Amino acid sequence: MGAGTRNHGGMRCVVFGASGYIGGRLVPDLLEAGHRVRVVARNPAKLSDRPWHDDVEIVRGDVLDAGSTEAAVADQQVAFYLVHSLHSTDFADRDRRGAENLAAAAGHAGLTRIVYLGGLHPDTDELSPHLASRKEVGDIFLAGPTDAVVLQAAVILGSGSASFEMLRHLTERLPAMVTPQWVHNRIQPIAIRDLLRYLVAAATFPEGLNRTYDVGGPDVLSYLDMMRRYAVVAKLPQRIILPVPVLTPWLSAQWVNLVTPVPKSIAVPLIASLIHEVICQEDDILQLVPDPPEGRLHFEQAVELALSRTSQYQVATRWSDASWPEDPSQPSAADPGWSGGTVYEDVREQHSSAAPDRVWQVVEGIGGEHGWYSFPLAWVVRGWADRLSGGVGLRRGRRDPYRLHTGEALDWWRVEEIERGSRLLLRAEMMVPGRAWLELSVSPAADGGTCYRQRAVFQPHGFAGHAYWKLIVPFHHVVFGGMVANILGEAERGR
C-alpha cells in the first residue's frame, strides 16, 4: 500500500468510491492539487495497478460497515463520497445505510466537510428511483453533523462514462432509430474535466457551507440534439430519428441493453432519470469556482476530447471499473484452500516453442477486439444469453487492447489478479449459478520455449450450479481446448 509520499501539505482527504469512474479520476487530481489522499476500498488489491497507488494511503473498508467507515475517516478533514449501488436491486437501502454510516462517522471524527456527487433533478416528489435515491443521500449529509457540499450533475461527458458510452453506441450503431418522447426533454450535460474541477475545489470551499450546487456545462440540449450533434462530431451520416409515444423507460432500457455495452442494471436507472428535464436551476458554483479563461467545455468539445482519448487508448477510467456485486467473504480461485464444498476444474497444459514473453503478449491481449481464441459463435451466443438475462455480456470490451490492470473489466470477466509476464486470473461476472474463474499461466520451459497452463474453476451454487457444469462439460474440449491451441498458435506465428 502506498504511503502518500507525494504530498506534504494540503487537506487530508479520504475518498470512498475510488475504484469507480469518477473516483479513479478524482484521486490523481486531488494529489496534483497538493492534498494528502486516503483511499477506501473493499478490496485494496483492485487498486494495485493504478498509477497513483504509491502516492496515496489505501485502507480496507466498506461504507456498509460502520466500524470500518469510522476507522477510514479518522484523522481526516474532508470525505468524498462517490459510492452508488446501481447494480443492486436494493440500491436505495444500501445507499441510505452507507450515507448514514458516513454521516455519523464524520461527526464523531470531527471532519470539516463531506463532498458528495449527486444527480441533477427537478423540484418534484415524483422522481425516478435512481434520482430519488441520489437526492436522499444528499439530504442525509446535509442534515448530518458535518457540513456538506452536494454537487448535482446530469449527463457526464467523458471517455468511458456510462452516459457517454450509451450515447456513442446508440448513435454509431443505429443509422435509423425510433425513440421515446423523452428524447425531447432538456438536459444540461457536463464534461468530466469541468466536473472534476468542481470536485477538487470543493475540498477548500469556505467553512460553514452546507448546501447543494447545480453543476453543468454551457449547453442545454435535448437527448435528440446530443445524438445529432454527436453524429456530426464523429463524422457519421445524418441519423434518422423517429420519436414515438409507446416506448416506456423500461422498454427503452431493454433496447439500450441490446445495442450498447451498458447493461440493463445501469441502463434502467439512467433512462428512468431522462424522463425528467435535468437542467441547472442556479449557477452559484461559479462564485466559488469561476470558469477557466477558455470557459467550460461545450458539448462538441467534450465529445471530441472523449473520442480522441478512446481512439488513443488513453481512457483513464471506465464505467465498468466498478465491480459487479459480490460477497468479499467468498473465496477466490487464488485461495490456497476452499474450506469445503464442491469445486469443478478444467485444467489443460501444453508446451509451446514460442518464447514466454511472446505467449504472455497474446494472453494479456485476450478478449475485446482480439476475441477469446476459440469457437467465436459459442462466445457470441453465450454473451447474448447473458445480456438477455440481465448480465453484462461480452460488449464491455477492454480499455487498452494490449495491457490489462488489476480490477478492470474484460468483456464479462474482471481482472482479479495479474502477475505481469506469468499469470492472469479472471473472475466471471456473467450470470451463472455459482462463481467462476479462468486462470492463464505462462512459465519458461527448459528448452527455451514455454509451459502454458490454463485452469477454469467453477464453484456451483445449489443443484442448478451442478447441473450447469455437467451441461457444459461436453463443450469444454471445443472451448477450452481450442483456446489453448489457438493462443499458442497465435504466439508461434508471431515469433
Automatic annotation (TrEMBL):
Residues 17-125 form the NAD(P)-binding domain. It comes from Actinocatenispora sera. Residues 320-343 are annotated as: Disordered. GO terms for molecular function: protein-containing complex binding. SUPFAM superfamilies: Bet v1-like (SSF55961), NAD(P)-binding Rossmann-fold domains (SSF51735). Transmembrane segments: none annotated. This is NAD(P)-dependent oxidoreductase.
